[in-house]
Structure prediction request, 958 residues.
Amino acid sequence: MTKQSELQLENDLIKQLVDLGYHKVTVLEGVALVANLKSQLERFNQLTFSEKEFQKILNHLEKGNVFEKSKTLRGRFQFVNDKGEATYIRFFNSESWNDNLFQVTNQITQEGTYKNRYDVTLLVNGLPLVQIELKRRGLEIKEAFNQINRYQRHSFWSNHGLFQYVQLFVISNGVNTKYLANNALQSVKQTFYWSDVANNNIKELSDFANAFLNPDHLGKMIAKYIVRNETHKILMVLRPYQYYAVEKLVAQVENTTDNAYIWHTTGSGKTLTSFKASQIIMDLPSVDKVLFVVDRKDLDYQTMKEFNSFKKDSVDVTNNTSSLVKQLADESKLVLTTIQKLNNAISKNHYENQLSSLKNKRVVLIFDECHRSQFGDTHQKITDYFTNSQLFGFTGTPIFADNASKNDLGKRTTKDLFGECLHKYVITDAIADENVLKFGIEYIGRYKQKGRTLLDIEVEDIDKAAVFKDEKRLGKIADYIIAYHNAKTFDKEYSALFAVSDIKTLIKYYEIFEEKKRAGAHNLRIATIFSYGANEANEDAQDYLPDNEISKAAESEIDYASTSHSRDKLDAFIADYNNMYNTSFSTKDSVQFENYFKDISKRLKDREKKTFNDAKDRLDIVIVVNMMLTGFDAKKVNTLYVDKNLKHHGLIQAYSRTNRILGEKKSQGNIVCFRNLKKATDEAITLFSNKNASETIFVPPYENIAEKFDEALENLLKITPTYQSVDDLVGEDQELQFVQAFRRLLRAKNVLESYVDFDWENLGIDEQTFANYQSEYWDLHDKVKRNNETNKVSILDDIDFELELIHRDKINVVYILQLLSKFKTADKNEAAKQKKAIIDLLGGDVKLRSKRELIEKFIEENLPNITDADTITDEFEKYWQEQKVIALSKICTEENLDQAQFNSLIQSYTYNGQEPIRQDIFKCLDNRPSILKAREIGDRIILKMKKFIDIFITGMTG
Prediction:
């Protein structure tokens, strides 16, 4: 049986789509696309446009970027027709999506910077709204993803920018099929399989087409389930389990008054799901008001930001009970509040007159993290007050009989309070779909018989509080964290949380770390936050941001006396934070304390942004008791250190702070336990997935990953027995084999390095040989990059080299200069070895490759003339400045740029990380280019500017 070709895959898909109701149309280039658009819009709007009228429509469609065009797509356009009459047209019908006109075409060619030909395009009312890129069976689906990114850069913006109306991409190799929103910022990790309602993935292209691409379903997805994120100005699309949950919630409101809950595992995007459900439910004619209820003030603020990012000004924070009552009484259809304020509003008599009209109205309440807030008497108060209410809960960790706590009202489960579970998406589903990461758990302590932990930390078979809190033990744990933090976080590229048992222990830990820092044992940036109103003696104290309205009079004086010590300590710790980041927070009032919490949260969350200044704003570890262990998401947190007892939902919630997806390098969430939590972990996994889930949820032991490394190495050596043999590879097919083999080895090594047992001596390849192979790998990447710049087509074009797995910042120019000083004073034999090592280092490190040629020139031409090794740094800086001036002058001469203006632009980009727009570039030019040439010239100059910065500025300091 012959292997199915890409062309056959394409033809079979088109035939299937025609059978599903699409009209096949031949559109081979841009002019035909525009002509087809005119005829389809005329038919859809039941109008006829003159050329002049259609030009107005085209001008309107051409405006804006992908994000802005998604709004244009869903809006109406008014123009004055040739008769002078006001005319309204639509581009998409979101209410009756089956009334839209669906067409399929293939092999459209467009020319932008380069000429591109697209595979299969789905046109809706003439606009390209779905682009399908196919690879033949056997090739990686990732290649189709990379191809889309190439088209984004090269040609989607051409021909009136019509391909910027694409809402969804589909990528497939026949066997695996995924979909994604049109968002140029996302990685291949943000691509999703479609599934059925029971979370069974639909991977085959033909099955996917039936389930997802049929006009009814696709129309509904575009109409209702594409979300415009206002904060990041990007499009998002719901994943299948989010879609099914929303559909079931809406159906529940339309068809019954029964309560229900949604069980979606932590980290699976519950906020987006609940927002979309709230948005659709509030538009139902039968619903008067939707209340979205969180149980903590910090989540009130966080959820407001996320809701308003999905739809601008959709909710406002209720600063106090009075503002909540005002929103409940007015025309606001969607209200976001805390359960504490809601409880106050319905309990206090003086709000009765304002709220009485709402009592019997149809009110839908949606509770976030309903496993926490619903087990006191507040739940009963709410249901008694709103007599016509319907309650829905969202949770990642439901309360079952096994993990229910007893209170005055008895043991109650999530089902007791909310009724049936409408949809489940458990942790095993999320890991299988690669929507969250596995956990890599290490239990550190005396019972560990092998490994390189170097520490005798007592953890097993001890349960006395005195032993846990012994300062010698705490000191050993601090030493361990200092020793291995870099390995866990890729040289501080990621951050960590450290969960401890109580506030007194937290204070001890913080002071131990500070003492060791003063002694020069580490340079970690450590912060802490805790609620000084919590009972310090209680390990289960709910250490959360207090709501403003908890008054001192409501608590006993003894509580305040017992917390004055911890508050003084916290103020001292906040002062350390202020010194570190030039801020001015304190606990003087609740606003300042809340802003301190927000600043820590923002510092961790913003690390994933390209503009984040890591050297200035990085925070390495936050020590907490309970804060941030639930409901807090930061993708750049990859490690949780644990020295407290956790169980059931608390354990899963805490572990899940580390397992958000972010690129190839973050392969797992690291959990480092300084207590023996193995039994508690196994019980929690059993409760929230199933008894056989361990293999799915946990990263295998070090030995298993080492075996994968050995297999990958064996495969690499079959293709290229030595690193020199990479140069002997004939043709791109052999080069592709090498790239895939070394990338597999690189992935295994990336995971291995996060284990404390990692040691090059135990592997089948030494570090230098690995670095030599890595240099060859880089050289191939550079070759592909050069070919792209000359528009040479290569089968390696869309291969993902996953360079982030190599990216390490510990080696920079300062480090090289230190090596040069040693090299200058070494004897002849040793100098030759050191020189070779330096040249190898220049080739193997991602940050130094761009500088290699200039540094080698300095070594060959300038270094022999320097007699005093102490002056090498000064001489190098002088040389570097000279080369910088020459390079800048060369760019300005080649492109006819004003040197002073262009230099200012470079400095601005270097300082704030904001890439200049083409208009900024054009201001530096002697003559503004024509419209046809503007984009090409602007992009070319920006590319040269980035290359200049990469060589002469990036990585030049320690």
